[in-house]
Amino acid sequence: MARTEDRYVVSLDLGTSKACVLVGEVNDRGQLEIIGKGTAPMKGTRRGNIINLDQAIDAVKKAVDEAEVMAGVQIESTYVGVAGDHIRSVNSRGVVSIAGKNREISREDIDRVIEASKSINVPAELELLHVIPREFVVDGQDGIHDPVGMTAQRLEANVHIVTGARTHNQNVLTCVNKAGIAVQELVLEQLAAAEAVLTHDEREMGVLLMDLGAGTTDYAVFLEGNVVHTNVLPVGAGHFTSDISVVLRTPMEDAERIKKRYGCALSSLVTSDDPIEVPTVGGRAPKILSRQELTGILEPRAAEIAKLVYRDLEKVGLDKEIRSGVVVVGGGAEMDGMTEMIEQCFDQQARKGVPRGLGGLADTVNGPEWAAAAGLLLWGFRHQKAVRKRPRRGLAKVAESVRSWFIAE
User: Fold this and answer.
1) What integer pLDDT is reported at residue 339 of this predicted model?
2) Which residues contact 320 (CB under 8 A, 6 or more apart)?
3) Secondary structure (DSSP) of 31-76
4) CA 395 to chain centre
5) Domain locations in the chain?
6) CATH architecture assignment, domain 217-352
7) Residue 10 to residue 78: CA distance in whole angstroms
8) Spans of the chain below 70 pLDDT
9) What is the DSSP letter of 104?
10) Which CATH superfamily is 2-85+166-198+355-407 part of?
């Protein structure tokens, strides 16, 4: 079995309901092709947080083993998605003066101003995950994306900073490492999913990406090409299952099956009213339910999720900025009527996000539930191309930073 080298990229999506692994290979034309995938039920997480380390490790091992067999590759390292209600984000600003005889902005000046933007008060229990430049301002002129080579006295950077709980990140690193895999980078899942499903025009005009996972709804707003807002709701597609289970008094496994087969988030879309047999507990006779009655259970929860996200965008003044609409990914996007419900609540067009930009076995991951895993592959692919362009010593620095992160207190 071959070993993962520079021409391979591996992604790991640690979700609330399952662990997903994808293996990509860079072909002779420099394009990324999917050559393997693996999935395993995840019982060791809740709302994106690890609550049982042994169960989480076991799920990762099973997903990795399945992907290795399909790809014929021994997986050594991976890009890992991070999500959960511990994620916090804020916009920040950094300012530096430009020295030198010609006052020409260099890459070192870019690094300095981004470093200056990090000087915010971060609680001890949180640590930085991403510092993403939104725009640069050169002597008062804003809207600049790459100021290198320009002449200036003052350089400013507006950045979006994402933080995560230190203990959560350590638990993720521990889980993956104990499964025998090194972590190359932790990546916020909605940023990763955006790599796979958003178009350039959507990012420029303004778009909301909603990732409806089992335990949480993660979302991000992109405007003028860059992310400007990220947030997480502790409510996800798993709550649809819970609602069915509680209201109908049926086991969670049966509730999940009924949701996937008959679920609809908008009653006006239900045309057939075929009877649904609902198993009960304690050996009692099954109940008979109409699809319209089932939709009556699901519709309020779907509306709640959409309205909570919309109110958050209103609060930060971005509700009118998503001119190209909403892109929905995650397992919850598969339910009938979910995009239509979002269209109603936002008064904007909505669509399901399907991964693009990948070859090989891409047709096996062409659903919205694979958006984060596919996006992690693309994120890693671009990162590895950037690293190969740097001096060789940069690789040692990256490895050292990952190593120190894992052993830090």
Assistant:
1) 97
2) none
3) -EEEEEEEEEE--SEETTEES-HHHHHHHHHHHHHHHHHHHTEE--
4) 25
5) 2-85+166-198+355-407, 88-165, 217-352
6) 2-Layer Sandwich (3.30)
7) 5
8) 1-6, 387-409
9) B
10) ATPase, nucleotide binding domain (3.30.420.40)
- Report angle CA 157, 160, 161 to the nearest 5 degrees: 115
Sheet containing strand 141-144, strands side by side: 88-97, 154-165, 126-138, 141-144
Answer whether 218's CB lies under 8 Å from 232's CB: yes
Q: Which amino acid is at 226?
A: N
CB neighbourhood size of 24 (10 A): 29
What amino acid occupies position 15?
G
How would you class 336 by CB atoms within 10 Å of its CB: exposed for 0-12, middle for 13-18, buried for 19 or more? middle
DSSP code for 173? H
Q: Are 253 and 263 in contact (CB under 8 A)?
A: no
Dihedral in degrees, nearest 10, Cα atoms 173, 176, 182, 186? -50
* Cα 127 to Cα 368: distance, rounded to the nearest angstrom: 29
Token pair recorded at residue 378: 């693309």
Distances (CA, A) of 389 to 24, 134, 138, 394: 20, 23, 27, 10
Cα gap 214→15, rounded to integer Å: 7
Provide the pLDDT for residue 316: 94
Cβ contacts of 184 within 8 Å, gap of 6 or more: 77, 78, 79, 380, 383, 402
Distance CA 192, CA 225 (A): 15
What residues does 309 pair with on adjacent strands?
Answer: none
105/150 Cα distance (integer angstroms): 6
Instruction: Indicate the residue type of 317.
Output: G
Residue tagged 């099954």 (tokens) = 286
Residue 383: the pLDDT is: 86
Contact (Cβ atoms closer than 8 angstroms) between residue 33 and residue 25: yes
Beta bridge partner(s), residue 131: 161
